[in-house]
Amino acid sequence: MKRTTATIAGLAVAGLLLTSCGRSDDAGAGGEAQSDAISDGKATGTIEVWAMGTEGEKLGDFVDAFEEANPDADVEVTAVPWESAHDKISTAIAAGKGPDVSLVGTTWTAEFAEAGGLMPTPEGLVDDADFFPGAKSSTEVGGTAYGVPWYVETRVLFYRKDLAQKAGWSEPPTSWDDLKQFARDLESKGGAKYGLNLQPGQTGSWQSYLPFAWTDGAALTNDEGTEYTIDSPQMAEALDYYTSYFDDGLSMTRTLDPGELESGFADGTFGAFISGPWHTGLVEDAGLDDSQYAVAPLPGKDDGIGTSFVGGGNLAVFKDTDNADGAWKLVQWLSEPDVQQDFYDEVGDLPSVQSAWDTGELSSDPQLKVFGEQLQEAQSPPAVPTWEQVAASIDGLVEQASRGDVSGEDAVKQMQSDAQSIGTGL
């Protein structure tokens, strides 16, 4: 698991040929027909790819196997920094001068599809049932898929196993009530200063809060994605539960400095926290081993496994590509289970294709199995073009609620008001 540290920490998701690909003249994003089905043949021509982070650094050599199987194809990979990727893709779409294929953050897909920059996924390119459901939904805008999930990540409970045993817990909590008692016991009996570290607002706190709301049954939009439905009893109840950890002194009320969580987890300041697979390497780098810490699925509200956040990266083909045929062939190849296993071995990206978890380290490593189990119960945010704007509003209101400046009910009402003003963009 340590190999995932450099790969996923920057962001927190990815045989046959096209006869033709295209958009119906009168269809817009969310109303487009899928591109034409693909036919037999090998890829040819240049396929330009943009990829970010470690994926961008490693993909160029990795696709040598694809080029060997398709000797008339030439894959050119450009590594793009994550911090500039969104604006670079937006500019490319506006100018009609993008690559053939790009790695796209899961929360960007709807925005770029609505802007008219992405090509709908061809019929029959992949089997939708092969992918984790939450990851697949991140590619769908108004019922139309734009690309496929390439790699995934999700959040689970990290806890100090030795402190939990000292506190009388031989198994991790499986309900909200248990989680609260678990945090109390880690403090009072295990010796932790804070039982469970949660993010008290600021950028990205929606990724920590929304899993509690999803577990409680909340839905952020209607089924069509045309209206936000944030103002619900489930959203308010989940926020009140979330902020109770700050009210009760079980979680630190300020945002941590870089490295503070890992060092605090190692020295016993924090008994538990919620995060993704990259943190296995980080806490081990801080001095812990698997006899001292463990991971577990997020607890359900009453019992069982709760719903977590699923992120990662999607592979999308640009509408202005000059080589749709080769581009979709490359996407299809990167979606094959054995190729995804090989890419995990090379980079550490968790595969989006479920069958890729059936053999090797992905099937036998105890920590990886927890992440695979959690991915069966994980959701992505709504695939609507305005999500990033609405997420910023949620972040700010989670922070206000965590400070005790606003109740969960009032915070959720304001989230809804802000979201209505913004609209879904569909």
UniProtKB/TrEMBL annotation:
Keywords: Signal, Transport
CDD domains, alphabetized: PBP2_MalE
Start-end of Polar residues biased regions: 414-426
Gene3D superfamilies named in the record: Periplasmic binding protein-like II (3.40.190.10)
InterPro entries: SBP
Region called Disordered, residue ranges: 401-426
Family in the record: Belongs to the bacterial solute-binding protein 1 family.
Protein name per Swiss-Prot or TrEMBL: Sugar ABC transporter substrate-binding protein
Native source organism of the sequence: Nocardioides hankookensis
